[in-house]
Amino acid sequence: MADIKALPFSFPLRRESVALIVIDMQRDFAEPGGFGESLGNDVSYVTAIVSDVKRLIEGFRAVGLPVIHTQECHRPDLSDLPPAKRNRGTPTLRIGDVGPMGRILISGEPGTAILPELAPIDGEIVIEKPGKGAFYATPLGETLKARGIEQLVFAGVTTEVCVQTTMREANDRGYECLLVEEATASYFPEFKQAALDMIRAQGGIVGWTAHLDDVLEAID
Ligand code: TIU
C-alpha cells in the first residue's frame, strides 16, 4: 500500500482507516424508465462507468478493504420525502409514482436496487438515504466512527449531485476524501468536469481526485 497519485497532490493512504463508498449506482439512475430518465436525462452516461466502478469495487474487495454502498430512496409511506423534493420540477414520474421498475426511488422496489453487476456482497454496509448527501438522516457517521474509517474513496452518481454533496458533508466532518474520475458520472459531462475541478481547487478544498489505475495500484 502506497500514497495514491492524485490531484492536487498525492493522497496519504492509510490501510487501517480507508473505505470505498459507492454512491447510488441504482437502476433508477442507470436504466430507462427510472428516476434519472424521468427528469429528462440520458442514462447512458451512467451505464458507461459501470465496468470501471466494478473494477474499483473488486480491487477493494481483493485486498480486504471495506466497501460501502448507498441508495437514494424513501419509505413507502413517503414520510421521509419532503414535499419540496417530491414537487420539484416537471418530471414525467415523481418519487413514489409507479413506473416500469416499480415505485420511483422507494425502498425495496426493483428500480431502487443497486445494479446487479455492482451489488453488495455479504458483510458490506448499505446505507439508504433520503437526501442527496449520505450523512443526512442516516447512520453513516456512526457506522464509520465505529469502524475507525477516516478516509473515503468515492465512486458513483451523479458527480455534482449526490457524490459531491456527500463529499462535502464528509469533508466538513473531518474525513479525507478522494474521488475516482473514471468511476463517477454526471448526466452533464461539463458538470462532472466542473465538479472535479472545484473539489481539488484551492489545495484540495473538498478533497482529492485520482485516476482508477493509480488507485488500484496504490491499494494493491
Ligand atoms: N438527478 C441527479 O443528477 N441526481 C440525483 O437525483 N441523485 C443522485 O445524484 N444520486
Automatic annotation (TrEMBL):
<feature type="domain" description="Isochorismatase-like">
    <location>
        <begin position="19"/>
        <end position="206"/>
    </location>
</feature>
<dbReference type="GO" id="GO:0016787">
    <property type="term" value="F:hydrolase activity"/>
</dbReference>
<keyword id="KW-0378">Hydrolase</keyword>
<dbReference type="InterPro" id="IPR036380">
    <property type="entry name" value="Isochorismatase-like_sf"/>
</dbReference>
<dbReference type="InterPro" id="IPR000868">
    <property type="entry name" value="Isochorismatase-like_dom"/>
</dbReference>
<dbReference type="Pfam" id="PF00857">
    <property type="entry name" value="Isochorismatase"/>
</dbReference>
<protein>
    <submittedName>
        <fullName>Cysteine hydrolase</fullName>
    </submittedName>
</protein>
<dbReference type="InterPro" id="IPR050272">
    <property type="entry name" value="Isochorismatase-like_hydrls"/>
</dbReference>
